[in-house]
Design goal:
Length: about 350
């Protein structure tokens, strides 16, 4: 890691240290809200774009060039390692990840192929090409957490109620645990490849984990997320753990092995910080819906996030979830300028 990257505001905030400016980036910043993204994606299927190193690097860098955000996130998807392991999955426009065959039985789980790290060459090459173009702006690697990725395998397609996932968890614990252990190995391999190729932080997305009670989470999910965090611990990069609707789960998400907790918009950052003992750097959590509001409303909401975020030892400004596809990119640029312009002494 170069000295410039080590001193980057993103990494300082992730470590709970003072920063030269308040870092900001957006989940799903690389993607559909940008006209230059739609232009380069024209005619290329989503997963083919992810596996084309030059194209993935170009899309990764687009939001950094346009918005002056403090981090890039590698353009990929949580299902990319499934495809590279040989699982038949496609990202269908307007729907999301769809599998040829859902994974629901002990036999289905036993038949899942292990991911050969060699198959990750397009990911390593895409990360390396991104880092080469980013000129010192940190690159975040990411993966789907075992629960959220398993939910796509079990449902076979997006379904926020997760009926088949919850049924498998409740009725066949041995198969459930074998499935999550498989996903955990897959996710660890995917994350390691990104860091070895130049990513300087990682984020584990457990987007749908808020569907579980704390007791369910601890018994059925947390050990597998811990295994992922442990598998990348020796790489010594900040590990961010994100989920939505996690008000009741925040201490458990931290205890899974994270260094930073990503908070969705259902709870204020000051309250989240208190629930975590006031000692954990946080990332978040402007409500993405506010991006469509008039500027005065958006500015007030962003300042409120900054004010509440000051309760934590470090704060990386972000949304509470991904950028909605119909967001005006100029609003994001203006928001970045605003967040950078608020001096630390005006936080409280
Ligand atoms: O054609 C397209 O443009 C497809 C839309 C798209 C994009 C741009 C998908 C399909 N994935 C992505 C990229 C992506 N996915 C990134 C890129 C980096 C960035 O943040 O800019 C990231 C981090 C993801 C991660 C991801 N994929 C998550 C976790 C984050 C989250 O939003 O909760 C999840 C749950 C997915 C699954 C997925 N992939 C795509 C869609 C539409 C979905 C969600 C489907 C659903 O509603 O369940």
């Amino acid at each position: 890691m170069t000295a410039t990257i080590t001193a980057a505001p993103l990494l300082a905030a992730y470590r709970g240290q003072p920063t030269s400016r308040r870092p900001v980036w957006f989940m799903r910043q690389a993607g559909r809200s940008l006209p230059e993204y739609r232009a380069v994606r024209e005619g290329t299927a989503m997963l083919d774009a992810c596996l084309n190193p030059e194209l993935a690097a170009e899309i990764t860098c687009q939001p950094v060039r346009r918005h002056d955000v403090d981090a890039a996130i590698f353009f990929s998807d949580i299902v990319v390692p499934l495809r590279l392991a040989g699982v038949a999955v496609e990202i269908v426009p307007g729907i999301g990840p769809v599998l040829d065959a859902p994974v629901r039985t002990a036999a289905d789980v036993a038949a899942l192929p292990e991911l050969d790290p060699v198959a990750l060459a397009p990911v390593r090459d895409g990360v390396a090409a991104s880092v080469a173009q980013l000129g010192g702006v940190p690159l975040i690697g990411f993966a789907g957490a075992p629960f959220t990725l398993a939910s796509y395998l079990v449902e076979g397609r997006p379904d926020r109620e997760l009926p088949a996932t919850r049924a498998l968890l409740a009725t066949d614990p041995p198969t459930w645990h074998r499935l999550l252990a498989w996903v955990g190995r897959l996710t660890s391999t995917f994350l390691r490849a990104q860091v070895e190729a130049g990513a300087v932080a990682v984020q584990l997305f457990d987007s749908w984990v808020g569907r579980l009670s704390p007791a369910e989470y601890r018994a059925s999910v947390q050990p597998h997320s811990t295994a992922v965090f442990t598998a990348v611990a020796d790489l010594d990069v900040p590990r961010v753990h994100f989920g939505t609707a996690t008000r009741d789960l925040l201490p458990d998400l931290l205890a899974a092995g994270a260094d930073v907790v990503g908070v969705a918009s259902d709870i204020g950052l000051d309250e989240a910080s208190a629930l975590l003992g006031g000692r954990v750097p946080l990332q978040g959590n402007l409500d993405p819906a506010v991006l469509a509001a008039d500027w005065a409303t958006l500015e007030a909401a962003a300042r409120d996030v900054v004010r509440r975020g000051a309760a934590a030892p470090g704060h990386v400004f972000n949304l509470g979830h991904g950028v909605p596809p119909d967001t005006d990119p100029d609003v994001l640029t203006r928001l970045v300028d605003l967040v950078h312009s608020i001096p630390p002494e005006q936080e409280s």
